[in-house]
Amino acid sequence: MGLEEEKKLEARYVMSTFARKDVEFVSGHGMHLEDASGKRYLDFLAGIAVCSLGHCHPKVVSAIKAQADKLIHVSNYFYIEDRGEVACHLSRLLERDVAEDEKKPWRTFFANSGAEANECAIKLARLHANKRAVAAGLDPAEAPSLVITLVKSFHGRTLATLAATGQSKLHHGFEPMPEGFLPTPINDADALCRLMENVGDSVCAIMAEPIQGESGVHPCTPEFLALARRLCDSTGALLIFDEVQCGIFRTGTPFAFQQARVMPDVVTMAKGIASGVPCGACAARGELGDVMGPGQHGSTFGGSNIACAAARATLDALDSEEVCADIKRVGAYLADALASIPGVQSVRGSGLMVGADLIDGLDAPDVVQRALEAGLVINATGPHTLRFLPPLICTEAYVDEAMHILASVLQDGGDV
Ligand SMILES: Cc1ncc(COP(=O)(O)O)c(C=O)c1O
Fold it and tell me: What is the CATH number of the domain that holds 48?
C-alpha cells in the first residue's frame, strides 16, 4: 500500500491527534530513514529521542528477534527474564557518581510510556506523604498532596500528567483538570521559595524536567535544581526528575541531573530506554523503592519480556565511556554549527538535545517542512523554535550534512 492509500485510510480510521507530515517511512538503518520511493532522509529526530542507537541497530534487532522466538508476554504475575538485570543496570547508572559507601539501590516500576512513568511517580509521592502522616499519628486525609511543577513543562497526556504539565493551553477542553498541581516559573528561585513558604506544608513533591524538551529545550540551572533539593529536604517532600526526554545518555551522561550534581528521590524515564519498543520506568531511591506495595500500582504490559530484552540490549550498547564522550563532543559541535548558521538567533541544550530559536520572519514549521523535502528530519516545538534530537550515534560528518541542508533551507528561496 502506498502513501496516498495509507493517508486515505488514516484520515478515515485513525484519530487525527497529530498533524502528520506527508511521508511514510518504510525502513531505517542507523542515521537514515527511507520512504517507499527509495528517497533517503537523514534523521535528526530519532522518533522523538527514542531511537538512540539509530534505526534497527543489529544488537537490538537480534535481541528482539531472539526474545520474540521464545516468549513475548506473560504479565506481571510472573518473574520475567532480563527485568531484574535492566532494573539493576538502571540502579547502577542512577548511582554512578555516588561515593561507594553512600550508594543506595534504586527500585524500578516498569510502565509502557513516559506519561505512565510519571503517573507512577505522582502516586508514589502522594502515597509516601500519606504513609508519613499515618506514621506520625495524623489524619491521612490531611497528608500533603500538592505537586509543584514548572511552567512550560511537559509530563504527558493522561489526565494527571496533563494537569502536571505547566502549559494551560494543553488543558483547554479537558477541564476539570485533576487538582493538586501548582506550576512555578523555571529557574525563578524567589518564586519557588515564596510558593514553598505559602504552601510548603501541603507539598508532597517538586517535579521537574532537568531540561524541558517539548517546550523547546529549556535547561534548569544547577542552582535552581539544588534549591528544589534543599526545599524538599526541609519539608520531607520528594524531588522527582522527569528524565523521559533528557535521560538515558541523551546529554552525554546516563541522566541529565548528573551534570547538575543534584540527586533526586525519584526519576522517570522512557523514550530512549528500549529503542522504540514501548517501555517506561519510574525509579525510586533507597527506602523510597518500598513505598508502593502489592495492589497499589500495576500494568498489564509494563516490563514485558520483549520490552526488557530490548531495554537490556539498548542499555548494554549505550553504557560506555566512549559513547558518553562522543555524545558530548558531537553535541557541542552541533550547537556551535547551528549558532553559526544565518537565520539562527540562539541555541541551547546539552549533548544531543539541542533547541534553536530562529530570527523574526522565519517560521519554524515551514523550515521543518522544507528540510523534510530536502531530506532532513527535524522538528519544531513552536513557531520560532527548532529541536534537534538525533540518534546518539551521530557524528560530526552527519552534523555537517544536516547543517548544510538546514543552511540552504534557511536562505531565501531555500533551494538545496
Ligand atoms: C519530559 C517528558 N515527560 C513525559 C513525556 C510523555 O511521554 P509519553 O509520550 O511516552 O507518554 C514526554 C513526551 O514527550 C516528555 O518529553
Answer: 3.90.1150.10
pLDDT (0 to 100) of residue 29? 98
pLDDT digits (tens, 9 = 90+) for 226-257: 999 999 999 999 999 999 999 999 999 999 99
Ligand 1 centroid distance, CA of 113 (Å)? 7
- Give the confidence band of 1 by pLDDT, cuts at 50, 70, 90: confident
The domain that holds 78 is classified in CATH as 3.40.640.10
- Shared domain for 196 and 261, answered yes or no, is yes
Residue 327, in any domain of the structure: yes
Q: Which residues pair with 211 in a beta bridge?
A: 219
Boundary residue ending a domain (318, 343, 377): 318
What is the end-to-end Cα distance of the chain in Å, rounded? 30
DSSP H helical segments within 14-158, as ranges? 46-49, 58-70, 83-94, 114-135
Q: Is 281 within the bounds of a domain?
A: yes
Per the domain annotation, does 415 fall within a domain?
no
Q: Based on the fold, state whether residues 12 and 108 are members of the same structural domain.
A: no
> Quick one: pLDDT at residue 415?
47
Domains in the chain, number: 2
66 domain-assigned: no
Report d(CA 401, CA 393) in Å as an integer.
15
* Average pLDDT score over residue span 195-204: 98
Ligand 1, pocket residues at CB < 6 Å: 113-115, 118, 154-156, 209, 213-214, 242, 244-245, 270
Tell me which residue of 265, 182, 193, 190 sits closest to 231, measured CA to CA: 193
Report helix angle 396-410 to 321-339, nearest 10.
20
Position 414 scores a pLDDT of 45
β-bridge mates for residue 34, sequence order: 27, 40
Residue to mutate (ligand 1; options 245, 267, 275, 353; most atoms within 8 A of CB): 245
**Residues 214 and 308 both lie in one domain:** yes
Percent of the chain past pLDDT 90, that is, above it, reads 98
Enter the C-alpha cell of residue 5: 492509500
Over the stretch 109-132, which tens digit does the pLDDT of each residue have? 999 999 999 999 999 999 999 999
How close is the Cα of 294 to the center of ligand 1, in Å?
26
Domain that holds residue 366: 3-57+321-410
Nearest residue CA, atom 7 of ligand 1? 114
Are 267 and 199 within one domain? yes
**Mean pLDDT value across residues 24-45:** 97
Query: Ligand 1: which atom is nearest the Cα of residue 161?
Result: 4
> Looking at residues 160-167, what average pLDDT do you find?
97
Domain boundary pick from 318, 345, 377: 318
